[in-house]
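Task: sequence design from structure.
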């Protein structure tokens, strides 16, 4: 977490306190239009409400039952809290712009909303438009930052509140909160930590943002990285890679994501659960094997994954069943 610069000038400190007092004692609360989805969206909307923000409208996506089995519903929260919400297909539509313009919000926030917002909509926020991104910017700008961070073996990620700009995740930074990535964490587990980090990041930043005294740090894109979305084929295992690389792929896309997969014996297998193995498998060719009733995935560096749960056609494949399949194909 980064800290705000220390102000050594007494006059500057005094003026800052006076301005903050004036803003926080205002008769009417700050208003917001919020674009949100996912558990991050739910927690961040709750944080806005807890900080006294009057959320006039929430723009979300239509809930997908395949997704909401593992994360919270923004629509359900809005129904519970009596907040108006809509789920338009196109955030660039004239109708949506008119709705936001009629509200004339102080702030626009985006919390894991899946579309870029047009600049003419962002300009409707009287006091700024801000996005909560799931990485420590400027690293991992773009899509699915948690999955990319796990895939690349990062040991830390976090949440960043930043101004929205023309380019994705490119505006000045207001606040960041970090979260560790442990060696065996899956992307799903990291996402749970990120949800908490997002809530903390927004909670810490809101008082100064509401008071109009929030500090900004430049978002140096030259020091960061950008990644696009991932396709199903990106989950295919290359057994010629090192065991750590294959393990990172597994962790990055492990269920409830689609899972890392391999085609062998005429069947497609998906790794459900795995750990790095301590067994010496240097004498075995790469790919799936059964050794001492354990399922192993042998990699290009002679090390292996101990596959605790292997799936085929949505069902768990045991060591004996896999051994039989491998024998038939030999």
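Answer:
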């Amino acid at each position: 977490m980064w800290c705000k610069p220390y102000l050594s000038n007494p006059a500057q400190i005094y003026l800052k306190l006076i301005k903050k007092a004036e803003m926080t004692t205002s008769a009417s609360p700050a208003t917001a239009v919020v674009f949100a989805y996912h558990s991050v969206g739910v927690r961040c909307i709750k944080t806005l409400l807890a900080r006294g923000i009057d959320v006039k409208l929430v723009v979300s996506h239509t809930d997908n039952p395949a997704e909401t089995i593992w994360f919270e519903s923004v629509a359900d929260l809005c129904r519970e809290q009596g907040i108006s919400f809509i789920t338009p297909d196109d955030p660039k539509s004239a109708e949506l712009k008119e709705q936001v313009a009629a509200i004339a919000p102080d702030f626009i926030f985006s919390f894991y909303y899946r579309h870029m917002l047009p600049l003419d909509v962002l300009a409707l926020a009287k006091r700024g438009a801000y996005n909560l991104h799931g990485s420590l910017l400027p690293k991992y700008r773009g899509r699915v930052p948690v999955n990319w961070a796990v895939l690349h073996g990062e040991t830390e990620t976090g949440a960043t509140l930043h101004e929205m700009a023309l380019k994705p995740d490119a505006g000045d930074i207001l606040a960041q909160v970090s979260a560790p990535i442990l060696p065996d964490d899956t992307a799903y587990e990291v996402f749970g930590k990120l949800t908490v980090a997002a809530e903390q990041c927004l909670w810490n930043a809101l008082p100064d943002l509401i008071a109009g005294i929030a500090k900004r740090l430049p978002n140096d894109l030259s020091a960061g990285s950008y990644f696009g979305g991932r396709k199903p084929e990106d989950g295919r295992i290359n057994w010629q890679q090192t065991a750590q690389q294959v393990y990172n792929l597994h962790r990055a896309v492990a269920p409830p994501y689609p899972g890392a997969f391999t085609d062998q014996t005429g069947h497609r297998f998906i790794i459900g659960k795995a750990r790095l193995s301590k067994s010496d498998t240097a004498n075995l060719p790469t790919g799936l094997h059964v050794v001492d009733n354990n399922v192993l995935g042998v990699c290009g560096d002679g090390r292996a994954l101990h596959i605790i749960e292997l799936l085929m056609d949505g069902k768990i494949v045991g060591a004996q069943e896999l051994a039989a399949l491998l024998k038939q194909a030999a």
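DSSP finds ten helices and 15 strands in the chain.
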